[in-house]
Design brief:
With 429 residues, the chain is mostly helical. The protein has a single domain, classed as MFS general substrate transporter like domains (Growth Hormone, Chain: A, Up-down Bundle), CATH 1.20.1250.20. 79% of the residues lie in helices and 0% in strands. It contains 15 helices and no strands. Helix 3 runs antiparallel to helix 9, helix 3 runs antiparallel to helix 14 and helix 4 packs antiparallel against helix 7. 56% of the residues are buried. One of its GO terms (cellular component) is plasma membrane. Pfam families: MFS_1. It is a multi-pass membrane protein. It is found in: Cell membrane. InterPro entries: MFS, MFS_trans_sf.
Length: 429
């Protein structure tokens, strides 16, 4: 069985149409990792700037706020204009935007000015990821959705981590030859080049290859964005199992944000000397790498689990298993405990994510796909921001506390028992 799944994985990687979409997605997400490592280094791991839970949580909120702001309009755009063209111009705009970010980082500019420019960058990113998710089902048959989602989402997550590692490595190489802020600006320029490459790769897709279909195209308007969100919510009320799966995925991502915030403070202020932020950044990078390995391994298990137990039972099992992982960090705030928690929470979380993505995609035709994924994105990002802010209120500057991992474990368990209860979360819902 494992051999068959491996063959399916590698077979889809060679799929002539899917591979072109993956090239765009993975190039952009590897670049995301480089860009995010530069921002983390500049804002949270700079010798001149002391990291604390609230500032880090606000950083998460700044990164994700535009996702929720543009969310109501993403579906409108993606269901009415060429998604290939949207990907091209969005990546091009993001590349140009990062040139401005690099200038601000080079000059050491912080505050509202930098925040506004970064908000634009991440707002554009939301459109790109939604377009990639909405277009994927049009390239392959429905039987391959689970595996294709596992490849696309997991490969992207791993490449974000690898991109972050590349960013940390490049910064370490140029650290001695440049002022810290100047080194970070070089990373941002590297990211700008990466997004330009992603824009050029969209040229390998035809104009309407990833949608929308001809009968859907109409004039979009400001008000239509909210109407489409309403239609997406109404659709999920009809397919209640997909809606409950989205809630489970959102809560899991919110918990991951809380644990990530904990890891950041532990590595920055406890496991390493606070006066040596470079060591903290490297330690945090190692923790993220371990989580990335968990994500990668989880993708291989998801298709097997779904095939053996079904989508609904497998998502519920993954949520139960996820509830056990943070207990390790709650019992002991050490680097080994952090590594174990990072691996298994990411491992089971990836099973939840890729399985639920395929569940949602299997319920909707292309007419509603952009609308439903816009709702999906807003719900998940609201949970991520909430998870970060709640953790910030509970975390000391050192990051040493059992409260946050216990809170995350309790949230996962509650979702598994209540939201995913068999009477509501089933294929016939």
């Amino acid at each position: 069985m494992a051999t068959l799944f491996l063959m399916s994985f590698f077979g889809l990687l060679r799929h002539p149409r899917l591979s072109r979409l993956l090239a765009v997605r993975w190039t952009g997400q590897a670049t995301d990792g480089v860009f995010q490592s530069a921002l983390a280094s500049f804002v949270l791991f700079s010798p001149e700037r002391q990291a604390n839970a609230l500032s880090a949580a606000i950083g998460f909120a700044v990164v994700l706020m535009p996702y929720s702001i543009v969310g109501p309009f993403v579906g409108t755009i993606l269901d009415r204009v060429s998604r290939q063209r949207a990907l091209f111009f969005a990546n091009l705009a993001r590349s140009a935007n990062l040139l401005v970010v690099a200038l601000f980082v080079f000059s050491g500019t912080t505050g509202v000015t930098l925040t506004a420019v970064v908000l634009v960058a991440f707002g554009i990113n939301r459109l790109i990821l939604a377009a990639l998710s909405a277009g994927l089902p049009l390239l392959i048959d429905s039987k391959s959705l689970i595996t294709a989602n596992a490849i696309a989402v997991t490969g992207g997550s791993v490449l974000v981590v690898l991109g972050g590692g590349i960013g940390v490595g490049v910064r370490a190489l140029i650290d001695g030859a440049a002022i810290a802020d100047h080194a970070d600006s070089i990373l941002v320029l590297l990211a700008s080049a990466g997004y330009l490459t992603a824009a050029l790769l969209t040229g390998r897709l035809t104009k309407y290859e990833i949608g929308p279909q001809k009968h859907e195209k109409a004039a979009a308007s400001f008000a239509q964005g909210f109407i489409d969100m309403k239609e997406g919510i109404a659709f999920l009320r009809t397919h209640i199992d997909a809606g409950r799966g989205i809630i489970a995925t959102a809560v899991h991502r919110g918990g991951l944000t809380a644990l990530t915030l904990t890891a950041l403070l532990l590595e920055r202020n406890t496991f390493n000397d606070p006066s040596s932020p470079e060591d903290g950044l490297q330690g945090f990078g190692i923790a993220l790498t371990i989580a990335g390995i968990g994500v990668f391994c989880g993708a291989f298990l998801a298709p097997y689990g779904v095939n053996r137990f079904g989508r609904h039972r497998w998502i519920k099992f993954a949520m139960f298993a996820s509830a056990c992982s943070p207990l390790v960090l709650a019992a002991s705030q050490t680097q080994v405990a952090l590594a174990v928690t990072a691996f298994f929470t990411a491992f089971f979380g990836q099973n939840v994510k890729v399985t639920n993505d395929a569940l949602v995609q299997s319920k909707i035709d292309d007419y509603f796909r952009g609308r439903v994924f816009a709702v999906y994105d807003v719900v998940v990002n609201f949970a991520i921001v909430s998870g970060g802010l709640i953790a910030a209120l509970m975390l000391p500057t050192t990051g040493v506390t059992a409260k946050v991992p216990l809170f995350v474990a309790a949230a996962y368990l509650l979702v598994a028992l209540v939201v995913l209860r068999p009477s509501k979360f089933k294929a016939s819902a």
